[in-house]
Amino acid sequence: MYRAPRGMQDILPDDQPAWQQLIALCEDIAKRYGYRRIDTPIVEATEVFLHGVGETTDVVEKEMYTFRDKGENALTLRPEFTAAICRAYLEHGMAAWPQPVKLYAIGPLFRYDRPQAGRYRQFHQFNVEAIGDADPSLDAEVIDLAGQLFQEAGLTDLDLVVNSIGDEHCRPAYVAALRDYYRRWQDLLCADCRARLERNPLRLLDCKNPTCLRLGEEAPRSLDYLCTPCAAHFQQLAAYLDRLGRRWRIDHRLVRGLDYYTRTVFEYQPTEGGAQSAVGGGGRYDGLIARLGGKPTPGIGFATGLERVLLNRRKAGREEPAPARPLVFVVAIGEETRVEAVALASRLRARGIPTAGPLLSRSPKAQFRQADASGARLAVVLGPEELAAGEATLQFLREDRPPQRVPLAELAPVLLASA
Ligand SMILES: [Zn+2]
Ligand SMILES: [Zn+2]
């Protein structure tokens, strides 16, 4: 028997209402905050991610689905949106649009990661990007958008953690201090961290190994190394966040896993579970567009995994939205009604009425059973007698009401009125 690829899942009809509801919420929030939708291809030239995300990140080193197509082009299934959206920003000359350009995307992403609860190799993200403005009020807006989304999705037990990791002026001194610090403890580090120490010491701060975690607590803090403009940026962001009334705290170890972040980084983490299971996060990436070959252009973004949100909703005991049900089920009784029953169902659907049946391979009794199981409110019964009179019988499947004969011509309006 064939199975879906490891770490990838089918989203079955019963799961769809929760998905569709969450996607609709994401789109509504995006609209309220003034973000417009963009769809980029599922694959990009591999270099977009090599240069954009950074060659020493886990995503690029270990997790990308990279292949050559039949024309020998190096392509990668997108592991994240930001680099792809910045590529689109450059390709379509969005620098000439009014800034900031505020975009959102929803769709599947791919990372060859170890599958676990809420983590898949094909997963889905809602992602927003505000490109072309460095003001900290935009950082606050993006963080606020994320908080509003989680609040309305019913995730209330989340901690907002924020940090600033500086920019190209102040970060080198911080990275050097971090490297010096970790070198002293080199023998205690996990193998991954030892390998990353020289190339990318920032990444050691978010290692989940218990010893590395403890070392991280005592490590130099990026906020102590910020240059004056970066420090001012962070201070202003803090003032906005305080005024927005969203509970937040600083986490000195928060660096996020991607090389392109500058200054602000943030995450929403379950109060119980912490950093390992962040439901969403993001940050500023003022150097990314330049890395992709554009003029230096600031940007800030946020992404959340839809699977994570749905998992946390279920954990929080949130009610699932009801599955879609047909309004009516057409039941045909007798050979001579078959053709008319099929035409009747078609006419009702054309009028916008969700209609199931007729199931002409089944006996009337079996059709009624199916009508019941479908969750339809009404059965529209077409028997020889009804056919001769040009009528149908309405039977109420969920209410204690007597059946009702309705002329076929009036059926749609009557059904719409009872919907
Ligand atoms: Zn480690
Ligand atoms: Zn700085």
Shape: elongated
Looking at the structure, the CATH topology of the largest domain is BirA Bifunctional Protein, domain 2
Which stretches are poorly predicted, pLDDT < 50 over at least 5 residues? none
The profile of the biggest β sheet is:
8 strands, mixed
Q: Which molecules are bound besides the chains?
A: zinc ion
Strands, count: 16
Number of domains: 2
| Largest sheet strand order | 1-5-6-11-10-9-7-8
Beta content: 15-25%
Q: Please write the CATH class name of the largest domain.
A: Alpha Beta
- Give the termini distance in whole angstroms: 43 Å
DSSP helical segment count: 15
Topology, please?
Blueprint: H1 16-32, E1 36-37, E2 43-45, H2 46-53, H3 58-62, E3 66-68, E4 74-77, H4 82-91, E5 101-110, E6 122-131, H5 136-153, E7 158-164, H6 171-184, H7 191-196, H8 210-218, H9 228-244, E8 248-250, E9 262-270, E10 280-284, H10 288-291, E11 299-305, H11 306-315, E12 328-332, H12 338-350, E13 355-356, H13 364-374, E14 378-382, H14 384-389, E15 391-396, E16 404-407, H15 408-418
Helix pairs in contact: 1-5, 2-4, 5-9
The site of one zinc ion (ZN) has 7 residues, from helix 7.
